[in-house]
Write a structure and sequence with these properties.
Blueprint: H1 4-12, H2 17-43, H3 47-55, E1 61-66, H4 73-77, E2 84-89, H5 103-114, E3 119-125, H6 129-136, H7 146-151, H8 155-164, H9 170-189, H10 193-200, E4 205-212, E5 217-228, E6 234-244
Parallel strand pairs: 1-2, 1-3, 3-4
Antiparallel strand pairs: 4-5, 5-6
Helix pairs in contact: 8-9
Length: about 240
């Protein structure tokens, strides 16, 4: 004879997928509505433009942004289809060339060498969970976390932040690191020979951007790179800093 308690437990533990399925259906119903609106209001209204894009793309920008759902660069900066080649990752990090292949530098290679973009823009943002994870890392801890393995790319920015902002509280240090990591990524871009060569020749410009979604402001700056000195030191400075409020 089957135990009533066991039967009850099995019934109670059955997956309750009905509500989830209905909710997912509603989400996709909304996406369908948005897509059909896009097709009517944008695609069909600009059919010639979209037919041109079906043949080739000639973006002026390569954008490296965070995967955070709140900071879509096309929404924030108004990029239209064909204007920006975009890659998004946790904390908008650019690993140095010597770290080996990742999807980020694969996208960089295609954007720079094949599409010949004129600008690379690395966009960071306020309240970045990836940077918070970086700042929370304990150096001696061994972990199999994918997040940890990725955000350690930003360790030099963390170290510089700890040295420069040790008197600040943790949240303020994170904000400092959000910007410092952008500058570190700009320098990492120059570790790729085919990027450095185009920057030196004036064919490519490298920019940083910081979107603060708390008060909706945007800070933009450009890396001024003159190449390396005879001693192997890089000559870099920041120029054209702007605050959009």
């Amino acid at each position: 004879m089957e135990s009533p308690g066991l039967t009850q437990e099995v019934v109670e533990n059955e997956p309750k997928v009905g509500g989830v399925t209905n909710e997912a259906a509603n989400h996709f119903k909304e996406l369908k509505h948005r897509f059909l609106g896009f097709k009517k209001d944008k695609y069909l209204s600009n059919l010639e433009r979209y037919q041109q894009l079906s043949e080739a793309q000639y973006p002026k920008f390569m954008v490296i942004a965070c995967a955070d759902s709140r900071v879509c660069p096309s929404s924030v900066l108004g990029f239209q289809p064909g204007e920006a080649f975009v890659v998004r990752n946790v904390a908008n990090l650019v690993p140095p060339h010597e770290n080996g292949p990742t999807e980020t530098n694969a996208a960089l290679e295609f954007a720079v060498n094949s599409l010949e973009v004129e600008n690379i823009l690395v966009v960071g943002h306020s309240c970045c969970g990836g940077i918070k994870a970086l700042m929370s890392l304990q150096d001696e801890v061994i972990s199999s976390s994918f997040i940890r393995s990725w955000v350690v790319v930003g360790s030099p920015a963390k170290s510089k932040t700890k040295a420069a902002a040790s008197n600040l509280n943790f949240d303020q240090q994170c904000k400092h690191c959000e910007k410092e990591s952008i500058n570190r990524s700009l320098m990492n871009l120059l570790s790729y020979p085919w990027i450095e060569e185009r920057v030196v020749r004036g064919k490519l410009s490298i920019h940083g951007g910081y979107y603060d979604f708390i008060d909706c402001t945007f800070e933009k700056w450009t890396l001024d790179y003159k190449g390396t000195t005879m001693h192997g030191d890089s000559e870099c400075s920041i120029k054209n800093r702007e605050f959009w409020t």
